[in-house]
Specification:
With 264 residues, the protein is mostly helical. It is 66% helix and 2% strand. The chain has 14 helices and 2 strands. It has helices spanning 19-22, 53-57, 62-74, 78-91, 96-109, 112-125, 130-142, 146-160, 164-176, 180-193, 198-210, 214-227, 232-244, 248-262; strands at 37-39, 45-47. Strands 1-2 form a two-stranded antiparallel sheet. α11 (198-210) runs antiparallel to α12, α12 runs antiparallel to α13 and α13 runs antiparallel to α14. The chain starts with 18 loop residues before the first helix and ends with a helix. Mean pLDDT is 83; it is low at 1-5, 7-11 and 14-59.
């Protein structure tokens, strides 16, 4: 990556960071009620037996299965986690969140191409699912499939409005494509929505630095450093800009602060 994300904030939005987006998109828990009538051979209808409470208790809730898969992955049982998710998907092929988590775990395992295939299947089921659009964009970006990533992020931005994480991801993609001036707008939009979004300030500094607006770049990097004082990267960038501005003593001080932050 030419310009690496400063923090997890520039990654695709997590389910927690996008709660407000997912309420309407996330499939509801529980199965749809099955029909309880059937015709018998004598053309008379009979009710199907209603499962007992014990039988219903034996069927794990889908959210419990997802949580179990996450816990397995967290403790390093990746094969078991993948098996659990694939079993759920085999029972419920339209389970969007199961496919999303499977894609995330495949990517974590390094199987990015299959992760892209899986999240694409989820998007076939729910084309307007913002977290999955952002996830596929991130995966495609990692494979230099920039056109697909841009298409997905522009759609996500349209659906999510000025969600700062989506805007930052779009801005970072423009930076990776050396489309610096185009990066400025979504990054500024992210900051307007969330003035304390450190990654937005950091990448905005990169964009301004690359179009030679050095005062604006310095201001953006300084804000990022204030928001994340233990992150050495904006401090290093401050030094670079100060050098470009012909202020070597201040640049040297910024580099010392960056080294100190790196050693913490």
């Amino acid at each position: 990556m030419t310009i690496e994300p400063m923090s997890a904030a520039s990654q695709p939005p997590t389910q927690e960071s996008n709660r407000s987006m997912q309420h309407s998109d996330t499939p509801r828990s529980g199965d749809s009620p099955a029909s309880i009538t059937a015709a018998n051979a004598g053309a008379q209808d009979h009710e199907r037996p209603v499962p007992s409470s014990d039988e219903r208790a034996d069927r794990p809730d889908r959210s419990d299965v997802l949580q179990h898969a996450r816990q397995l992955a967290h403790v390093g049982e990746m094969t078991a986690a993948l098996t659990t998710l694939r079993a759920l998907i085999s029972r419920e092929p339209k389970h969007v969140r199961a496919r999303q988590l499977l894609a995330e775990l495949l990517a974590h395992k390094g199987d990015v191409e299959n992760a892209i295939l899986e999240v694409s299947r989820a998007l076939e089921l729910a084309p307007d699912d913002v977290p999955n659009l952002c996830l596929r964009a991130a995966l495609c970006t990692s494979r230099a499939k920039y056109d697909q990533a841009e298409t997905d992020l522009k759609r996500a931005a349209k659906l999510a409005g000025f969600n700062p994480d989506v805007q930052v991801q779009l801005g970072v993609l423009f930076c990776k494509r050396a489309r610096w001036r185009e990066a400025i707008e979504p990054l500024r939009a992210a900051i307007a929505s969330d003035p304390k979004h450190a990654a937005a300030h950091y990448h905005l500094g990169d964009a301004y630095n690359s179009v030679d607006d050095l005062p604006a770049a310095l201001s953006a990097y300084e804000t990022a450093a204030q928001l994340e004082p233990r992150n050495e990267r904006p401090l290093m960038r401050i030094g670079v800009v100060l050098d470009r501005l012909g202020r070597p003593a201040e640049a040297a001080a910024a580099y010392r602060r960056a080294r100190a932050a790196q050693g913490r």
